[in-house]
Design goal:
With 87 residues, the protein is an alpha+beta fold. The protein is built from 2 helices and 5 strands; from the N terminus they run βββαβαβ.
Length: 87
């Protein structure tokens, strides 16, 4: 899937441009909700992709506890809202 999304992570209000492939189960053809929470892959290594992570791990964790998520630097899926989609 090509294209990008500008997202805001719930855990720390960080905004970031991510490939659409970083958004779990994202359907580009569906209407995007700017209020819905999506699972978006994040890593403190900007070169890490979900595919890279899966080469070394069995699954990608979902970090759902927002208090813990704000304090961790672990790669995984975090809750985020989509601000805009391009491409």
């Amino acid at each position: 899937m090509t294209g990008y999304a500008f997202v805001k992570f719930t855990r720390d209000q960080l905004t970031k441009v991510v490939p659409l492939s970083f958004i779990q189960d994202f359907d580009k053809e569906s209407k995007v909700s700017t209020t819905r929470q999506y699972w978006v892959f994040w890593s403190n290594d900007d070169n890490m992709t979900p595919e890279d992570f899966l080469k070394e791990n069995d699954t990608i964790p979902k970090i759902s506890n927002e208090a813990a998520a704000a304090e961790t630097t672990d790669a995984g899926y975090y809750r985020a809202t989509i601000i805009v989609v391009t491409g």
